[in-house]
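User:
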Amino acid sequence: MRSVAKFWFRRFSLINGNIIQRLMARDDKLLCAFGVIADVQYADIDNGMNYSQTAHRYYRRSLELVKTAVADWSTGKWRAEFVLQLGDLIDGLNARLGASGSALDTVMSELTRGDHVVYHVLGNHDLYNFSHDEFVTHDHMISSFINERGISTPSPGTSGYYHFSPAKGFRVVVLDNYEISMLGQAETSDSYRFVPVHLVM
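Assistant: Predicted structure:
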């Protein structure tokens, strides 16, 4: 559910048409360290089973795992400069309970406690709780899609894809998996109507 990634400069040399990669064991330069978290799927409800009834789900426990991750990213040898949150921050069951907003507030209050920027990717459970446009313009999310940290998005407020550069020579590109989708999009929108349909003959 969580990890820390590290990137180093790598030196390449061209000899007789062959590229030889030398990992610099003694003079590697750390570009940045960042945290990764996915599928938190928090909900303030009792434990249950997944959709296919094949695995247990610990909805409240996921918040404790977020706290542990933030503590790890904020201390230790490599402190996370930023965090990539890869989607499904809250569970789809929140929508049925009318708790989408409060669940998002709760998990974001823990995820943002550390001294790091959090960048978001859209997940299907996020769009069970909010429409696509509601989610990318939500107060908690908009810092990913519209801010002054060198992030670029072609259509601020309508798109969930963007890119940013956390270190010189390194760029992160985030895609919007649901830009063209029947999930989270209004049925009258081009994004909904232009979903490709594949016919099986």
